Amino acid sequence: MCGFAGFSYRNDILIKRMGNTLRARAVDAEKLYLDNNLSFYHAHLKISDLDKNTSQPFIYKDYII
């Protein structure tokens, strides 16, 4: 199962602990993003899909989902 965790301030320790909790659900890939105003973690579980454009996180220009 995919999962997201994040908040609108930077806290490296807390977001990594949250990531560890999501990782326990057997993810295939993960991404951690930190800046001064954001802490974000995304865990991705691959599914069978014919379209490679459905990979996450979705990145378009300066936007990341």
The neighbouring-strand order within the major sheet is: 1-3-2
Task: Kindly estimate the percentage of residues that lie in beta strands according to DSSP.
Answer: 35-45%
Order of helices and strands: EHEEEE
Tally of strands: 5
Number of domains: 1
Largest beta-sheet characterization? 3 strands, antiparallel
Q: State mean pLDDT (0 to 100 scale).
A: 81
How many helices does DSSP assign? 1
| Low-pLDDT sequence parts | none
Cα end-to-end separation: 17 Å
Molecular shape: flat
User: How much helix, percentage-wise, in residues?
Assistant: 10-25%
The radius of gyration is 13 Å
Structural class: alpha+beta
Would you kindly provide a written description of the structure presented here, covering whatever features stand out?
The chain is of the alpha+beta class. It has one domain. The strands form two sheets. It has a three-stranded antiparallel β-sheet, covered by helices on one side. A two-stranded antiparallel sheet has the order 4-5. The chain is flat.
Give short descriptive properties of this protein.
alpha+beta; two-stranded antiparallel ribbon; 65 residues; flat; 5 strands; three-stranded antiparallel beta sheet; single chain
Layout of secondary structure:
Elements: E1 3-7, H1 12-23, E2 29-35, E3 38-44, E4 59-60, E5 63-64
Antiparallel strand pairs: 1-3, 2-3, 4-5
